[in-house]
Amino acid sequence: MKLSGWVIYFSKLEGITQDFFIFVHSLVFSKKEYMDKVVINSYEEFEKLLGQQIGVSEWLEVSQERINQFADATLDHQWIHVDVERAKVESPFKSTIVHGYLTLSLLPYFWNQIIEVNNLKMMVNYGMDKMKFGQAVLSGQRIRMTADLHSLVNLRGTAKAEIKFAIEIEGQKKKALEGIATFLYYFN
After folding, report:
1. Looking at the predicted structure, is the pLDDT value of residue 26 above 80?
2. How far apart are CA 99 and CA 95, in angstroms?
3. Closest CA to 106 of 33, 177, 180, 35
4. Residue burial 29-51, b: 16+ Cβ < 10 Å; e: rest
5. How high is the pLDDT of residue 35?
6. pTM for the full model?
């Protein structure tokens, strides 16, 4: 991308400061596609996020090596996941695909990029609801997670948080996975 044209354009405008140019440049040319981690220290801070997007994780490429390791760990060696040559010929995707449960298992990794909850005795995974696999993730594609605070209930000092999440595939409109994850946060 040719930046010199932008510099000339901005230098000819009256009242444009260097700070404004740097701000516009950062908006237009920034490669940061994720949000900074949200830090929560209390139930009250958590409550302020109700109905809002909490954050967006960084992109993660799901390599064939990761797929093969997951297959070994789960004993799920179905050819559509691990046989690259056969998948090129027989799969409707013309590629191996990521196990749906591998995609699901990456939620904690993504979640830890999005939020940090402090002042806890413990946190418990309580359940999953309305989970749906929408589109296969192909080997080598990049995915990320978006998360919204769907609901928050105070259960005598324990915060029951329902997080509406979506796993996006880079360059695709349809989500790989969507659902609601429920956590119990036991604040000190």
Report:
1. no
2. 13
3. 177
4. eeeeebbeebebeebeebeebee
5. 74
6. 0.79
